[in-house]
Amino acid sequence: MVKNSLLLCALAGTFAFGANAQEVAGDSVMQHVNGHRFSVGGYGEANYSRNFYSDHVSRYSQPEEHKNDPSHGKFDLPHVVVYLGYDFGKGWSVGTEIEFEHGGNGIAYEKEDEEGGEWEQETEKGGEVELEQFWIQKTFNKMANIRAGHIVVPVGLNNAYHEPLNFFTVYRPEGEDIILPSTWHQTGVSFFGRYGKWRYEAQFLAGLNADNFTNTGWIHKGPKSPLEFDVANKYGAALRVDYYAIPGLRIGMSGYYGHSIGNTYPAEKSGVSATYKGRVAIGSIDLTYKGHNWIVRGQADYGYLSDADQLKNMYNRKNSKSPFKHSAFVSGNAYAIGIEAGYDIFSQISCLRADEQKLFLFGRFESYDPYASDTKGTSYGYTAVKRIATGINYYPVKQVVIKAEYSHRFLDSKYNNEPALNIGVAYQGWFL
Fold this sequence. Notes:
mainly beta; 5 helices
């Protein structure tokens, strides 16, 4: 077990090679190391990708026109994160997570494919720098903890294990990252604890905003707000339960329920926003296993959105200066299924095993669709994806990984498949 990790709750799965390899992101049991109360940690990723398919905005609407388009590449810093935590004593503590996404520090321009390739200046809250966690916690005992503030919502495997040492692929596993917020963080209150082989967590949160739902990302942008505050006209609740069945194996179930239509500013007293609910219901099951030099991870997520056919009508009534101007339909259902497995081939080489170096050869398969049910007879066939990835993860030391993978997205036969080569390096650990 990593001995110098003061703040388990802020770092999901820091113990990638330790006895507690299946600790959940929100685990709040504080560990006081050598009397220190202040902790500093974080993680970061630097990636390179070469995509052997078209990046043209009409690659799906006119696939034959772009079948032989040139490949394109990019360097990226997906996430660079700093953790700060402090234990005040008597069970009171505070934790923060500051994230720099894609190397940005403010507003960014993006080309929105679902809006005909229109260039937009993003107005997401915090721009490309986000405060992903800020909470104050009271720990009564291992079984009972209360946390209030901006917290991680641990629905799905990605959100519970979103740090780069906790998945084999260069980028976060794609299916969940497409249909769910990732990392999903909102302001609210959480109660959690552990009893025997069980860990449990219940959260009360501000609702999602249906104005941010899309045909290609379902509720992915639901927690975002262009305002200086999170609107809470509607509310949501999340629940997660994990069972540590046998050494090395963890099985988890998580879910979410809340209303999303009308959770915007200003509140409307009539019309679609006042009439319909936009109920969001999500169910997820996941597992992780570490043993006999194998690591296996898997998840299955299914989501339901009521009144999905009303959202396009609601968007079209937004005025020209509104930040919510989506023109595509949103699906009433979405799903993501994925499994990955890797074997440490260095475990069979005695000198490398003694030096604690690891080299995992892995494979991953996933299937997902953010537009799994047609809304008013409208179909976006390119959203249904099956993806395979195979590659290596090399750990020269426990806190650093070098990743390389070949991936291939398989789309419906009338579209072009999307192969890619991805390479990355990442770290994850505590400095103080």
